[in-house]
């Protein structure tokens, strides 16, 4: 079941990144004036797609928490393996 959580985390994260980029591109260039900037950010914050991005971030955090406890740590965060196993950084396979 842990892998389902981790896959869900990845899918929610990808959705959030794509939707965020799409909506910021749709909103146009960031204005130069302070008042216009506040209006721009308020419009983005009130956008239903951006609200769904925020919810997907929250859901991804929750699924990451559920999945990372159910699966071995080396499988969840392989980049940080040297932090999990002292001496792993000097191993031959990491120096390639």
Question: What's this entry about, in short?
Answer:
The chain has helices at residues 2-27, 34-46, 48-70, 73-76, 81-84.
Topology (elements, then pairings):
Blueprint: H1 2-27, H2 34-46, H3 48-70, H4 73-76, H5 81-84
Helix pairs in contact: 1-3
Structure commentary:
This protein has helices spanning 2-27, 34-46, 48-70, 73-76, 81-84. The protein has 96 residues and is mainly alpha-helical. It is elongated and about 50 Å long.
Oligomerization status of the protein chains: single chain
Largest sheet: none
Straight-line distance between termini: 33 Å
- Shape, please? elongated
Q: How much helical structure, as a percent, in the residues?
A: over 70%
SSE arrangement, N to C = HHHHH
| Number of structural units classed as domains | 1
Category from helices, strands and their pairing: mainly alpha
Query: Low-confidence parts, pLDDT < 50 over ≥5 residues?
Result: none
Counted beta strands: 0
Computed Rg: 19 Å
In percent terms, what proportion of residues is strand? Answer: under 5%
How many DSSP H or I helices?
5
> Taking all residues together, what is the mean pLDDT?
82
Which descriptors apply to this entry?
96 residues, mainly alpha, 5 helices, elongated
């Amino acid at each position: 079941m842990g892998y389902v959580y981790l896959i869900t985390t990845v899918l929610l994260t990808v959705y959030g990144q794509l939707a965020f980029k799409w909506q910021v591109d749709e909103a146009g260039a960031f204005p130069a004036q302070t008042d216009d900037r506040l209006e721009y950010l308020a419009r983005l914050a009130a956008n239903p797609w951006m609200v769904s991005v925020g919810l997907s971030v929250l859901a991804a955090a929750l699924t990451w928490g559920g999945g990372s406890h159910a699966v071995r740590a080396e499988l969840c965060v392989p980049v940080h393996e040297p932090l999990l196993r002292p001496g792993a950084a000097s191993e031959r396979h990491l120096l390639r």
